[in-house]
């Protein structure tokens, strides 16, 4: 799944790459491999990440050092929603595989957060908090890919349908793809992929001619 996200998003030499739920840093390692395979300089990439779990955060530092990846993972392990370690960052590529359907993400304290441009995410589910956080980090012409629970494509609970519609109508969604079940050993929850683009077609070769268009395994007009 990591390789698929990277292959679709096509990170390039000289770009800024961000993962708000970076785990042990696998996305970054794969991104630099992609750049090197395609003739770019993998050292000429600015890598930014954040991880809540202290042990995993330390593993990310070790994993990236082993692979020769220089990364800014924040001053400490921290919650992405409540303690953003890169508050001013605008990235060219944003990608993540965050935990699905988190209910205790602190939404009750973030109701007026400036990231919720398309609607306040429900307190009981962080899926649309992840999406909007990632959108808030996109530089002009940037693109994003995220793995979420399959229900994020169709749920209408607690205003999620309205948020989804607003994101689609803002022409930020390039594609939504429902994935086969049981892809992940860590969860039985069905998953999907969201690909987002800030200004479709501005990135050479990525989502060309997609302005005003979105593909999905569900009908866009029912979003």
UniProtKB/TrEMBL annotation:
One of its GO terms (molecular function) is N-methyltransferase activity. It holds the Pfam family N6_Mtase. This is DNA methylase adenine-specific domain-containing protein. Residues 2-201 form the DNA methylase adenine-specific domain. It comes from Streptomyces haneummycinicus. Coiled coil: none annotated.
């Amino acid at each position: 799944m990591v390789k698929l996200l990277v292959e679709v998003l096509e990170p390039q030499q000289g770009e800024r790459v961000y993962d708000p739920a970076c785990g042990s840093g696998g996305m970054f390692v794969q991104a630099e491999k992609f750049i090197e395979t395609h003739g770019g300089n993998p050292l000429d990439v600015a890598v930014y990440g954040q991880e809540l779990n202290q042990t995993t955060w330390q593993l990310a530092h070790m994993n990236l050092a082993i692979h020769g990846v220089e990364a800014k993972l924040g001053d400490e392990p921290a919650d992405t929603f409540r303690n953003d370690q890169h508050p001013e960052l605008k990235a060219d590529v944003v990608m993540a595989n965050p935990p699905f359907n988190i209910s205790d993400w602190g939404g009750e304290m973030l109701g007026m957060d400036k990231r919720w441009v398309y609607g306040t995410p429900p307190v009981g589910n962080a899926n649309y908090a992840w999406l909007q956080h990632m959108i808030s980090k996109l530089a002009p012409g940037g693109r994003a890919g995220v793995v979420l629970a399959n229900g994020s494509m169709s749920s209408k609970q607690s205003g999620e349908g309205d948020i989804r519609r607003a994101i689609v109508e803002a022409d930020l969604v390039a594609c939504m793809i429902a994935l086969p079940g049981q892809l992940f050993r860590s969860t039985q929850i069905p998953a999907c992929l969201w690909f987002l683009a800030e200004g479709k077609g501005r990135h050479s070769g990525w989502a060309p001619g997609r302005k005003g268009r979105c593909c999905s395994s569900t009908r866009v007009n029912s979003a």
